[in-house]
Sequence to fold (242 residues):
Amino acid sequence: MPGESIPRKYLAFDIETAKEVPGDFAQWRTHRPLGIICAATCASDAEPKLWHSTTQAGKPAARMTRPDAAQLVSYLSTMTSKGYTILTWNGASFDFDVLAEESASLDECKTIAHDHVDMMFHLVCMMGFGVKLQKAAEGVGLPGKAGGMSGGEAPTLWAAGEYEKVLTYVAQDVRLALQVAAECEKRKEFAWITAKGSRSAKPLPRGWKTVREALAMPLPDTSWMTTKGMSREDCLAWMRDG
Fold:
C-alpha cells in the first residue's frame, strides 16, 4: 500500500548490571559504575545470543570485562550496518549509558543509541512518562515475564552463582521486547495497563520511532500530572555530558 513503511528487522538488546542499587532505582547514577554481569541480543529472525565474560576456569565472571563489553558494542554496530534496527526498552537512558562507560566506547554508543528504537523513550516523548515493559505486554495481550524474578534481583543471584536463572531472565526480556514491538506495530497502537489496573492506549500509526525521530516530536501536555514525569533531556543527559 502506498505510504506504508517497510517493516524493520529488529535486534533487541538488554543488559543486567552487577551492582545492587538500594532504594529508588531512578537514582542509579549516584552508584556508578554499576558494571555489567550479562547481556542478551535477539534478532527478530533468530534465537537470543547471550553475553558475559568467563573466568580462567570457564565459569561466568563477576562482571564483563572492558574488552568483552567493547565487543558487544562492535556487534551492535555491525548488525546495524547489516540492516537491523537495535531495539530496547529504556536503552537510551540506561543500557547504552552503562555500556558506554563499561566499554569505553562513548562515541560509538551515542551513535547507536541515537539511531535505535527505544520504545520507552518514544513513550516519554509522546506522553511525558514511561511505562514498564510488563505493563505494555499485558496491554497488548501478551503473557509477559515469567520465572519469579525481577531485574533488581540479578546482581544478588549472579553473585550467588545462579547464572542460568539470570541468563534465562535477560533472554526473556529481549524476546518480550520484540513481541511488544511487533504486536504494537501490527495493531498500530500502543496499549498498557495503568497503575489503576485499567487498559489505556495511544495510536501508533507509523510504528516506533528511533530516538532521533522521537526527539522531533512536539512536547506532550503534562500539565495534568501531579508529579514530574520523565523528560527527554534527563534521559539523554549522558550523551550531552559525556
Q: What stands out?
A: The domain at 9-225 is CATH 3.30.420 (Nucleotidyltransferase; domain 5). The chain has one domain: 9-225. The radius of gyration is 17 Å. The first helix runs from residue 66 to 81.
